[in-house]
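name: query_chain
kind: protein
chains: 1
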Amino acid sequence: MNTSLKAIINAKLIVGDEIVEDKILLFDKRIVKIEKKIDLDQIEIIDAKHHYVSAGFIDIHIHGSGGADIMDATPQALQTISKTLLQTGTTSFLATTMTMSNEVINKALQNIQQHSKKVLGAKIIGIHLEGPFINPAKHGAQDKTYIEPANFKLIKNYMQEIKMITLAPEEKGNETFIKDMSKKYPHIILSIGHSDASYAEAKKSFKWGISHATHLFNAMNPYHHRKPGIVGAVFDSDVSCDIIADLVHTHPSALALVQHVKKDNLLLITDAMRAGCMKCGTYDLGGRRVEVSKGKACLEDGTLAGSVLQMNEAIVNMLKYTSMTLIEAINAVTRIPAKKLAIPKGELKVGYDADIVIFDENLSIIKSIIDGEVKYQCLDY
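structure:
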């Protein structure tokens, strides 16, 4: 048997913008073929039993899961998060940091740089630096004690690993930083977030190099008919945005609105903290006490502190409360984030990485495959 080649049969393959039921998916570390007839002699067969098969989910904003957090800055924490995410269908993610002291952030960045390639589950495909270059007025669950103007000093040793930076463009000095970054490091997504920028300031920042908005509606000024703010600027532009579809951070009506307006420029994220895939109880986020109850994570003063959302749950919520089709919802966690990051993932396409997920009609994850290897299998199937 050719142990390197595998084939998925009897599948509802999500390929491009259609669901294909009469083809076989052949892969090793990458997608090899998608055809009706393939000689399966000496090839390992995976029977999807008429369930859905798509590219693996990509989460560009996640702090932790399974009791571990990126800011723990240990190899064990990265392993725990990586393995835990497989049960949610996430096969790749950006390890997301928080606003803490430069020393703590540096340790977390160094840990990712040294150990991210060693994880055994979902791949760490880069770093999302959320803060400390944000607005104190919109710090949310971030510790405003450590907020500072955007600068290269903190991140200069990690420019290859950093793929995304969330910052407040209206803060003093951040305009120059944004312009320099977009010119010298075009591979890094610059995202407006934890910001109090006006509509005009936000629109201006898009010209400087801001191309995305972090957890739209949250940690930013509210949309108002006389002061549309950041949300209005995002709606009136072609910048992409992401949203936390947990029904806690965003009302179903807001989910439907942003889906209607942004369409192919909308990504789903979890913004999950260490309590993701865990029981309710007391946890911490960035050194601050967090109470998790009934799917809601809050600081002691009631401020929302990340989420416990799972990516497959986010898809379910979008399907239930918006006009999104299954293909559109899957694209929002596969093709669209992959395109934003400019990586060969996110599609069942010849030559792309064989990061694959098999799930049922309820979005329960049956198998998660990384680089062509089955890394998770639900025992119920």
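note: The chain has two domains: 2-54+349-377, 56-341.
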